Fold each of these.
Amino acid sequence: MTTVHRWTGLEARALRLALRMSVRTFAAHLGVGTRTVSKWEKLLSTTEPRQDTQAILDTALARAELSVHLRFETSLHEAGRADGRCARPVAFSGPRTWEYETWADDLDRSVVALSRQNFPFAQDLLRRWLVRFPPPGLDEKGLYLHARTTSLLGDVQRDQGALLGPLSARRSYQDARTVFGRLGVARRVAQLDLSLAVLMEMSGQLEASARQYEALAVDDRLSRRDRARARLWVGTALSKEGDHEYATRAMLAAVREFDDLSEPEDWAVAHQKLALAHRGAGDLTAARRCIDVARTAGLADSPLQRVRLNTAHGHILLSDPGTLDDGLDVLAKTAQVAAEYGLSHQRRSIEIIRSRHATSGGAMRPVRR
């Protein structure tokens, strides 16, 4: 962002133009006389505002939107080319305005790459900004972007199965949570608490993750959708623990909430997880009904979503002696897709299901996915 060490009439005029204000409006905006602004406009770099006015100009620039900073910097750059003798007392600390905008654009691009499981490209987009602009020297806008970048890097690491350790999703989520906490962005902190609970579940800490999900399901810092997802995940953790009755009730509550919120993708995923809960409870009829709902919803448009859905489908097929071969075929093909896209956690889950089938003869029993 731009900072001015010492204002002259030149910088004051550039700020007025960036704010797109007339001389009279700009004077009123600053709380100074119109004649004062006219003097700056006439004398430019040969005049300096008084000390108290310097502080007023600092505040006006600091409170300006990113687009104003961009126009301000552009105006100063053009003024410098027009008069090379002007040594403008201006510095750029951290990213400039257009770099912030490019950074935000790259975050959007990384989200798209992540949704397609293009992990190398998503990781490259994220790491280039983390390396280029470390937290020291960033203002609040930069720190916010840094925390968003670190959080998304955690998503990449989670989907690749790097859950714990110094270069893991947990470390990235914790780092992002610390920055958002310092910035006072409560919603982002709560979302990261939810992400950390997911890691606990994925790493086998089922009881602890279920307790965390239950707390977040009623946490007002989260949106209704995120609270409903937390409620759904209470069910997934408890189902893996074998508490299928309570898990089913929690999942049904989440299904109703997603329906009320008009969230078709979450609604379909909830039916997928509900199918596994019914399967664990021994109700294959209900399990087939729910997995059919999830499959016919037609919303599994990414490799990760397809792998999760087909893994659940194959797991249910294995539970019926009449569909054993179909289940093995579905899981074999799904394992190939997981390997192709680097979905190591999902591939391990498939192998666990297949190995348990081999040792139990297809008996229905809960499995940690």
Amino acid sequence: MSSSALGDSLRRRPWAWSFIGAAVVWLLTLGLSNGAGAVQSLQTALFFAMFYAIVGLGQMFVITSGPGNIDLSVPSVMTLAGLVGMAVMAQNNAAILPGLGGALAIGLVIGAVNFGLIALLRIPPIVATLAMSFIVQSVAIAAGGAATLKPPALLNQIAVARFLGVPVLPFLMIAVAGLMVLVLRRTLFGRAVLAVGQSERAAWLAGLNAGRTRFYVYVLSGGLAALAGVLLAAFSGGASLDIGSQYQLASIAVVVVGGTSVLGGRAYPQGVWGASLFLYALVNLLNLAVVKFGLGSAGPGIRLILTGVMIVAIVAIARDAD
């Protein structure tokens, strides 16, 4: 393929940059580690990227629904849903479905309340969802305290299950991302999200209800954040108050790096997965570099700076190529 044809292909597929970035970072990681644990590192990346991808898909629908729309309540929803889910299950395999149902209900309700604050009280989404995040986190603190609530043995086994050595749950989530592509491109709901994000007035003239569409996307975001909270608690061995702390900015970063427009109207679920792999691989690379080059106590600060710089760089490259 010629360089011109390759450039045209990448312009039509801005989400591809996230996979290119993930591959480059993974190769750099192998170089620093002298190729040790290549397969294991890839499998680990699939597991941890999965949680970025789940919350990122919900955030993607919110951002796609129009300029200014964002959900900053993701980490607190994950925390509260994880705690409630584990509390209801009480390490009892028979209570897995009720616990999962309760956790998802919490996410859906919080998503609905987020939209209510935005639509009824005319509060900007960034303010409404951030305020809701503080409220929900406070409820989680009051309800869960400092305890770590452990999952039932069966749920933990499901979360880490492998088939022929290959992790099962991440591939199910990859299938979900594929389903989201079909939802956006082939269903009335998906087309309504894209249309409202591109132009609310044009969508209204076409007979679409922008308010109802945005209600659905905020509810969807809350539900996916709750699902991520339960799965993360099951995978990590328990739910605690900081279980969702790193996912607020990560849920936004994977959307933007994955090619979705922050102005709305354009989304790529497959890019969310690529960006999730990129983000995990980047953090892993920087952790390895800190150890390799003996950066010591300066490591955390350097990691944060380099992570931000590299995310800005790949977003800029993808934007210029679009």
Amino acid sequence: MTPLAGLIAARIRMSGPMRLDDYMRLCLLHPRHGYYATRDPFGAAGDFTTAPEISQMFGEMVGLALAQAWLDQGRPAPFALAEIGPGRGTLMVDILRAIRIVPGMADAAQVHLVEASAHLRQVQRARLGAVAHLDDVAELPEMPLFLVANEFFDALPIRQFQRSADGWAERMVTLDDSGALALGLGPALPGPAAPEGQIRETCPDAGPIVSAIAARIAGHGGLAIVIDYGDWDGHGDTFQALRRHRPEDPLAYPGEADLTAHVDFAPLAAAARAAEVRASRRITQGDWLLRLGIAPRAERLAAAGDAGAMAALHRLTAPGEMGHLFKVLAFWAPGAPVPPGFEPLEN
């Protein structure tokens, strides 16, 4: 039993079963025992590897897409160049290098990072120098906003509801007869008809985050790019854990494993459009990167002696790798051209 598992079990004994989103929030962000509060989870020595850690090409493509949108929207200056959930800062390092080829853009950029982990803030400052760290997207400045969120929404806490014979019951974290953490069901409530046993997931925090970002873009211009694994109108149980690069029982190692769930892109696009910005169709990461020109970039790097460039291209874009598992969604200022690689979402 991990230290956090003991604390969670004690809380359940005192207060009763715990909602799944409360469990995830404790596991990831507990100030002493939370996953992101205590470690650097990225890379071979951690628990998982994100696209920016695989190759500089990923960040370069993201940076050039942001740069083209900045040019298309009239080169606003100053503007907020922001990332939510920036990890080690690798993606922002590559974005900043890519936009330096665009006259005036790097000078106009004011870097803002939305990061909850004190440990990762230190890592980001070591790589990026003086940047503005924010606790919440609501703190983003009132100015044009060009933002990226790579593997951020999958880590937001979710709630799950399971259809029973009597209605929909919320899945809760409770204790089994041995005192170990286990999943159980709360009281059944009325709801729409569905096959018995079907599970629906909701992410209470996702909509308000998108709404806050979209409000900045609606008022001041800009673009947001969301990259994550998931689908459109997805359902079923996608709650999962990763530890030492292997799938793990999400209840087995609280505070010592990464907890995530697949992102449903449909409500993200709906929240953006409700804030009166334009949204894209979701596209696979592989197709988007190929549209942006990652293949010739890989070939140039390989010709220059980068022995891993073609393998990285395959991992980032191939259907059996990250290429189709990860999807990309954009929302941008009304009246602005469609950002590079995207197609608008029509009614």
